[in-house]
Specification:
The complex is a heterodimer of chains A (about 500) and B (about 550). Chain A contains 18 helices and eleven strands. Chain A has about 500 residues and is of the alpha/beta class. An eleven-stranded mixed sheet of chain A has the order 1-3-2-4-6-5-10-11-9-7-8, sandwiched between helices. In chain A, helix 8 runs antiparallel to helix 17. Chain A starts with 5 loop residues before the first helix and ends with a helix. Chain B is elongated, with a radius of gyration of 29 Å. Chain B contains 19 helices and 16 strands. Chain B is about 40% helix and about 20% strand. Chain B has about 550 residues and is of the alpha+beta class. Chain B starts with a helix and ends with a helix. In chain B, the strands form four sheets. Chain B has a nine-stranded mixed sheet with strand order 2-6-7-10-1-11-12-13-14. Chain B has a three-stranded antiparallel sheet with strand order 5-4-15, with no helix packed on it. Classes of the chains: A alpha/beta (about 500), B alpha+beta (about 550). The interface between A and B is large, with 45 and 29 residues. Chain B: InterPro entries: Asn/Gln-tRNA_amidoTrfase_suB/E, Asn/Gln-tRNA_Trfase_suB/E_cat, Asn/Gln_amidotransferase, Asn/Gln_tRNA_amidoTrase-B-like, GatB, GatB_Yqey_C_2, Gln_synth/guanido_kin_cat_dom. Chain B: It is found in: Mitochondrion. Chain B: Its main location: mitochondrion. Chain B: Allows the formation of correctly charged Gln-tRNA(Gln) through the transamidation of misacylated Glu-tRNA(Gln) in the mitochondria. The reaction takes place in the presence of glutamine and ATP through an activated gamma-phospho-Glu-tRNA(Gln).
Chain lengths: ~500, ~550
């Protein structure tokens, strides 16, 4: 039951094969068994059971009623701690729900807990949060343990980030879907590394109200699910104008289930040559070729395209990101909410010590460089220049889509998930630059993109590919993604009971 | 009401008339009057041969709280004197994850203000973040319009009343650089005893108006601000009360010799009335001139006006070499205003859009137009038009009186600007609170005009009407037997009594000193409590003393 897509579970709920409370209890049980993954910062057991109970007494009203879900801990949840995996907010409880959370609750979905992340979503490994790193569920499943001969507790792989907790929650079958946030790839990256479908919708299609921002001009709530169709249904529920977010746009069309027999014959798939980048693993490249071939054999037009400014994207992304971070983090001064330092000889001293104690090195580093980029003497040279390049990057995509390309097919990450001990050899900045290289251009241009798991690597870890589409063509993008999903035969983690595998190693 | 004192003093200078009636009021007004010889000397520049004197240069930054029921970027209410922090939304408190939503009413207010000040309205304007750490700025930045404000390049025309009787109207212009929409910061209340600061986040939306340094003294700046207050109040876009913080004025002051580059400027803050504005600026100009004449240099700094000492003092400079690290506000798309309904793109609801043409059509009569109209229509003096327009509701009152009486406007104006306004001011009442309604005053004036009562009796009746609202002038005249005595026989007998009891005066008159007749007339009026028909009395007395 836990291994099903939520649509399958939804059907079981309706047919009475399982009750919402039973389902909730199964998931809570699973959360306990997989506690070592550190996927959740807060598990909302009590309220989850209450919601499941409510779902049970009313007539099930939609496909999400009674379905357990997890929310990245940077979305505000009313009366439930929202920490951003930071000391700064470790005891912060918001008085309101983010719009996207509220919409899921309104559908009767059952909130299981708040998922772990990199502090304030700044990272690509889910290794830099105040509550510790998240472990990739696949690194406890048989294929990885057998292939790598991993014996030690420390031989685990990262989830990717920053929405690593959300990805691990969905991959470890403790939630059927999860909300992530995607600023430079934070949903797609862990989605790819944990073998789940990860959608970053068009910028503005989903409300950011209640999402504690990283980069306002790029942040999009992300959807993580076990299948593309599940993601599409959630998108249909979450999309649309929100009066509380002036950057939202009306949904181009209501979105329900995807067509099961989408024909790719009239589809033109672009393969951007710049994405054949240094560091791309042989296996990921092989998957990329394999899926391109699948398209070609099915009669789709597959052609190489060029996005010439791609190489400048990551640098500009960092300038813009750090500048907005410097601004967005200014409100955390210890006065109204969040951590407040004991050192308070003056207001200024209290600001400084509060922020020093409350933020980790990564956050402080970005604030420092962001403020540097925004200084009057540097503004033109860094911020304005980066914005100009951002425009060129968006133009690259526009030109390609204007030339008849329907979707771009690219890798999501350079390779499968790194082992924690290897990953942490390099600092956050280096890793973010490597890990976001294929994902952040879509954020720079505000385009919809989705990562679909295609295969397990030789190490037994998932590999994902990314599709990028023109703005507001999210449905078509998902239809193509589903077409891939139907053909690649990615295995379910429930084929192996990885939690038992793990205990075997421990004893 | 501080606002009145300011209104009646700096511009109107009609204290002479008021003081005749209310010595108490006159002393208040005399105290707050700004006489400014420095300013006058600048208005009439010295001949070129004399060495050029240092003169003041004044620019203003004005923060006007937008008069709207909800805030600029959130849906929470705005109400003056609401309990601290009682009107604070999650966004106002800068809770994480909240986003600004622009209030259309505030945009319309800014566009309307821009149109009234002859500004160009930018079809597209942008919002920016201005960063600094301060306890009453919970987000760590203020949302403002630094790069492209909603309105630019306008003019404010204001008038100074010059000359001995303040009857010479001099029109001046000040250039409006821009009008920008911005978030208000909170209010800090420093408790020095417990060394803590209390913050009130009940803040509204602001329009910041930047006036170029086209003024040269406190009086000019005060007149410009007073005119702006009237315009804002006429538009209804800001209540304009400085003492309540609805209008906050910072002055940029420097001195130089005309023709030379501008001097180093200081910014004077903490000014909470128009009267203090004039004083603060004049003090600051003198202070800077003093420094330069002693061979010193003026520091570029922020100074606070201390109304008790009448001086400006350096503020602990929180800004110093502050770099505000401006950046675009990413949560607000560009603000677009449309010229007219025809230019609205398809799919945009006209009710949701800000349309300049519609706002233009709704512009009320502006104070300067109103004053011109009053002078032209009623033949009153320009200074009277200032008095009328300066007092909320007085023009309407004046015109209502005129509707109900045949008395000439030029004769009515004195009643309104002296008797009525004087009484109101003495009791600190607004025009709408007047116990005498326009028709009631008209009836009184009609009694006088038709010869039923004398002018001195009319003033007595006015006082009685003021004290017993609801009673008509006719009732009071009858009750107190104040009607004009024109019974010839009765008057003859009274006059005879006066003539008989004052042989010396009669003698003087007969010797040619005709002026003494007035004394006798006064005695007759005293006898009749002012009710005797003066024409008749004069005639009778002339007969009896010839």
């Amino acid at each position: 039951m836990l291994g099903l897509f939520f649509l399958g579970v939804s059907l079981a709920l309706r047919e009475g094969r399982i009750s919402p409370t039973e389902l909730c209890k199964k998931c809570l049980n699973r959360i306990k068994k997989t506690q070592h993954l550190n996927a959740y910062i807060t598990v909302t057991e009590e309220s989850a059971l209450k919601q499941a109970q409510q779902s049970e007494v009313r007539l099930l009203k939609g496909p999400l009623d009674g379905i357990p879900f997890a929310v990245k801990d940077n979305f505000c949840t009313k009366n439930i701690k929202t920490t951003c995996a930071s000391k700064m907010l470790k005891d912060y409880t918001p008085p309101y729900n983010a719009t996207v959370v509220q919409k899921l609750l309104d559908q009767g979905a059952v909130l299981m807990g708040k998922a772990n992340l990199d502090e304030f979503a700044m990272g690509a490994g889910c290794t830099d949060g105040a509550f510790g790193p998240v472990k990739n569920p696949w690194s406890y499943a048989a294929p990885y343990r057998e292939q790598t001969g991993a014996m030690l507790e420390s031989d685990w792989a990262i989830t990717g980030g920053s929405s690593g907790g959300s990805a691990a929650a969905v991959a470890s079958l403790t939630s059927y879907l999860a909300l992530g946030s995607d600023t430079g790839g934070s949903t797609r990256n862990p989605g790819a590394l944990c073998g789940v479908v990860a959608l970053k919708p068009t910028y503005g299609l989903l409300s950011r109200h209640g999402l504690i921002p990283l980069v306002n001009s790029m942040d999009v709530p992300g959807i993580m699910a076990r299948s593309v169709n599940d993601a599409a249904i959630v998108l249909g529920i979450l999309q649309g104008l929100d009066v509380r977010d002036s950057t939202t746009v009306p949904a181009p069309s209501p979105l329900t289930e995807l067509p099961q027999d989408f024909d790719v014959k009239n589809i033109c798939v672009g393969i951007p040559k710049e994405y054949h980048a240094p560091g791309l693993s042989e296996e990921t490249l092989a998957q990329w070729s394999r899926v391109a071939d699948l398209f070609e054999r099915a009669g789709a037009q597959v052609k190489q395209v060029s996005l010439p400014h791609t190489q400048y994207s990551i640098v500009c992304y960092h300038v813009l990101c750090h500048a907005e971070v410097a601004s967005n983090m200014a409100r955390f001064d210890g006065l109204e909410y969040g951590h407040r330092s004991q050192i308070d000889s003056s207001t200024e001293v209290m600001y400084a010590s509060t922020r020093h104690e409350g933020f980790n090195d990564v956050v402080r580093g970005r604030i420092l460089s962001g403020n540097y980029f925004l200084l009057k003497q540097n503004y033109q040279h860094y911020f304005v220049k980066a914005q100009k390049v951002r425009r060129l990057i968006a133009d690259d995509f526009r030109n390609v889509f204007g030339s008849g390309v329907d979707v771009l097919l690219t890798p999501t990450t350079l390779s499968d998930a790194a082992c924690y001990q290897d990953f942490t050899q390099e600092d956050n900045r280096t890793r973010s630059a490597q890990e976001d290289v294929f994902t952040q251009p879509a954020n720079m241009a505000g385009l919809p993109a989705v990562s679909v798991p295609t295969a397990l690597s030789r190490r037994g870890l998932p590999i994902g590919l990314q599709l990028i589409g023109p703005a507001l063509h999210d449905k078509k993008l998902l239809s193509v993604a589903q077409w891939i999903e139907q053909r690649v035969g990615f295995p379910s983690i429930s084929d192996w009971d990885y939690s038992r595998e793990r205990s075997a190693h421990i004893h | 009401m501080a606002a009145f004192c300011v209104a009646a003093s700096e511009l109107l200078h009609n204290m002479k008339q008021i003081s005749g009636f209310y010595p108490k009021a006159s002393c208040v007004i005399r105290r707050i009057r700004t006489t400014n010889p420095r300013c006058d000397s600048q208005i009439q520049p010295r001949a070129k041969s004399t060495p050029q004197q240092l003169v003041g240069v004044v620019g203003l930054e004005i923060h006007a709280q937008i008069n709207s029921s909800t805030k600029l970027f959130s849906g929470s209410s705005v109400r003056f004197s609401a309990p601290p922090n009682s009107l604070v939304s999650f966004f106002d408190a800068s809770l994480p994850g909240t986003l600004p939503v622009l209030n259309r009413r505030c945009v319309e207010a800014a566009v309307m203000t821009g149109l009234a000040l002859n500004c160009n309205i930018n079809r597209k304007s942008l919002f920016d973040r201005k960063h600094y750490f301060y306890a009453d700025l919970p987000a760590g930045y203020q949302i403002t319009q630094q790069r492209q404000p909603v309105a630019v390049d306008g003019t404010l025309t204001y008038s100074l009343l010059e000359g001995k009787k303040r009857s010479q109207v001099i029109r001046k212009n000040v250039h409006i650089k821009q009008i920008q929409l911005e978030q208000d910061s909170g209010k800090s209340l420093h408790d020095d005893v417990h060394s803590q600061t209390l913050i009130d986040l009940n803040r509204a939306g602001l329009m910041e108006l930047v006036m170029e340094p086209d003024m040269s003294c406190g009086e000019e700046a005060a007149a410009a601000v007073r005119e702006l207050q009237l315009i804002l109040q006429a538009l209804g876009t800001c209540q304009g009360n400085m003492s309540e913080g609805q209008l906050r004025v910072d002055a940029n002051v420097s001195v130089h010799r005309p023709g030379e580059p501008l001097g180093v400027r200081t910014e004077v803050k903490n000014i909470n009335s128009v009267r203090y504005l004039a004083r603060a600026i004049d003090y600051e100009i003198q202070r800077q001139i003093g420094i330069l004449q002693r061979g010193g240099t003026v520091q570029n700094e922020t100074r606070a006006y201390d109304s008790k000492s009448g001086e400006t003092i350096p503020m602990r400079d929180k800004e110093g070499l502050q770099d505000y690290r401006f950046m675009p506000e990413p949560n607000l798309p560009p603000l677009i205003v449309y010229e007219d309904n025809a230019s609205l793109p398809a799919g945009i609801d006209a009710c949701q859009a800000v349309v300049v043409q519609k706002i233009k059509e709704g512009l009320p009569e502006l104070p300067s137009i109103k004053r011109d109209r009053l002078v032209q229509t009623y033949g009153i003096l320009p200074e009277h038009s200032f008095t009328l327009v300066n007092e909320d509701g007085l023009v309407e009152y004046f015109e209502a009186v005129l509707m109900a009486t045949k008395k000439e406007p030029r004769k009515v104006i004195g009643w309104v600007t002296n008797e009525l306004l004087g009484h109101l001011k003495q009791q600190d009442l607004s025009v709408s609170q007047s116990p005498i309604s326009p028709p009631a005053l008209a009836e009184l004036l009609e009694l006088q005009e038709t010869g039923h009562i004398s002018s001195s009796v009319a003033k007595q009746v006015f006082q009685k009407m003021w004290r017993s609202p609801g009673k008509t002038a006719a009732q009071i005249t009858q009750e107190h037997d104040l009607g004009l005595v024109s019974d010839t026989a009765q008057l003859h007998s009274i006059c005879q009594k006066v003539v008989d009891s004052h042989p010396d005066e009669v003698h003087a008159i007969r010797n040619g000193n005709k002026k003494v007749l007035n004394k006798l007339m006064g005695l007759v009026q005293k006898e009749t409590k002012g009710r005797a028909d003066p024409v008749l009395v004069r005639k009778i007395l002339q007969e009896k003393t010839s």
